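Q: Predict the bound structure with glutamic acid.
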Amino acid sequence: MSVRVRFAPSPTGSVHIGSLRTALYNYLLAKKQGGQYVLRIEDTDQTRFVEGAIEGMLRAMEWAGVIHDEGVVVTEGQLKEEGEYGPYVQSQRLDLYKEYIKNLLDSGDAYHCFCSKERLDEVRENQKTAGQTPKYDGFCKSLTKEAVEKKMAAGEPYVIRLKLPENKEIGFDDAVRGKVTFNTAEVDDQVLIKSDGFPTYHFAVVVDDYLMKITHVIRGEEWLTSTPKHVYLYEVLGWEAPKFVHLPNILNTDKKKLSKRQGDVAVEDFMKKGYLPEALVNYIALIGWSPEDNQEIFSIKELEDKFSLDRVSKSSGVFDVNKLNWINSHYIKESDIKRLTDLAIPYLIEANYITEEEAEEKYNWLQEMVAIFQEKISYMSEIKDHVDIFFKDQVEPQDQEAQGILKEEHIPQLMEVFHQKLIDSEVVDKDTIKRIFKEIQKENGIKGPKLFKPIRVAVTGKSHGADLPLIIEVLGRQKLLSRIEYLKGNLI
Ligand code: GLU
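A: Predicted complex:
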């Protein structure tokens, strides 16, 4: 039987890095095994539905190149479906859940529960006070058929719960964790149908995974404790359960669960900052999976080839943004300069350095400018902090170190000769600058840092940075002259 996997997000907000990893591992297994990767929307909790979340999620997946074979897609701005196991949105499958809940009620594996919220809260509080794990106390489990009918006729609100046997071991083989067992004493009589008539996640996920012929359920570790309920449901419905694969948590470098408080966690945050999709995918793949050797740089095609479930780790992975930056800067260095320029332009427009028209007119110049910093940036939005020098009319020394450099005794003389040599040169490119530097060394005896540093500060305001002759060439003769003149007239 061919492998069928699914990524089943709930449309409750932006896509978390952990969800991208879950999607990626599903995708990789499907590719590796020549199977199908399905994307299903789990929107049974209507109170948590966030407008636009499905579209945002699909955009993030498309950006990352983690593309599904079946399920919900956006075509010409419209949500559509592709595949023969639809609908792929749970709120459109309500009739299917009704059919299967009826089977469970008929067989006595589910029951109606009329307990009010107040009663449930009270039970929970009492259990907590008594030091017990809070769980439903089974109050409605043995209501007679007549009592149920009477309450229903009176219009009392109800839910439908799974009837778990008492004190039974439920076990399954997890592809990552091996044999996992739970005793039903630790598990709640799970609500399967809520009072609004919608199924809960736990019921819908089982029905859908079965009907969509899912062979492997690959999801985050947070679902591990729910799995016994699902396994039991498969059993009473008479269905073969899929293989379960629970992925380890992703932690921050401080070993706490990855959360917004410690930094970016949404794929969208990384898109906005200008990370390259192949770098994020490469990095994410390595949080929780490792190859047989020490390889760290993988294209998605290579990952498709090398990925295997047996190398998914049991222990939590750490999200280390420095490592991500290292991988991202690797991909930036390897990237075509045109691609980088196209990626840089929106940040330059946003910083008001250029307009859209100027971006077109000056495209070649922008390309040269971006190329200077290709080796320096970790992600594309950083470009705007480096290139400010090209768009200012004047620059001022930016810190104490830079200020100090301009106070040295030889500066007036240096600037004077440098200025004169610029005036005498019609073209100022990097070779001219190198020639001028050599001449000053010879004629005035100013060399090394005493020569380069003040000129760097004069041109950029900064005491450190990328290749100076290149910066000067891209800056152009006119701007260069006006900066030196400003410095002579105002700063020294
Ligand atoms: N809808 C669940 C979520 O958003 C999916 C869990 C599962 O894959 O079974 O995490």
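A: The mean pLDDT is 95.
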